[in-house]
C-alpha cells in the first residue's frame, strides 16, 4: 500500500482542523489557551486580564473565538446580580 492508497481526510474533518489552525494563528490566543490549559482549575476572564499585554475587551474576544472552535468553554456565574465569565478547558479523551 502506498501513501496514495490511504483514504483522504474527510472534508468535515479538514474543515474542523482548518478552523483550529486559523484560530491559533493569533499568538495572543495561543498564550491565553496555554494559560487556561495549565491553570489548576477554572480561571476567570478578569484573572486572564492580569497577564501582561491583555486587556478585558480583547481577552473576551479571544476567549470567545477559542470557545467557537471548542478549545475552551465558558459559563456565567451569577452572585447577587453580578456576572463573571469563567473559562476552562474541557479535557477530552480523544486524540487528534
TrEMBL record:
Keywords for this protein: DNA-binding, Transcription, Transcription regulation
Transcription regulation in keyword set: yes
A Pfam family assignment: HTH_5
HTH arsR-type domain location: 9-96
Protein's UniProt name: HTH-type transcriptional repressor CzrA
Amino acid at each position: 500500500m502506498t501513501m496514495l492508497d490511504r483514504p483522504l481526510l474527510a472534508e468535515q474533518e479538514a474543515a474542523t482542523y482548518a478552523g483550529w489552525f486559523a484560530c491559533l494563528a493569533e499568538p495572543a490566543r495561543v498564550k491565553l489557551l496555554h494559560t487556561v490549559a495549565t491553570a489548576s482549575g477554572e480561571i476567570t476572564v478578569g484573572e486572564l486580564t492580569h497577564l501582561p499585554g491583555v486587556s478585558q475587551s480583547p481577552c473576551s474576544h479571544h476567549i470567545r473565538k477559542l470557545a467557537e472552535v471548542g478549545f475552551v468553554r465558558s459559563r456565567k456565574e451569577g452572585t447577587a446580580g453580578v456576572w463573571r465569565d469563567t473559562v476552562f478547558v474541557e479535557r477530552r479523551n480523544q486524540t487528534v
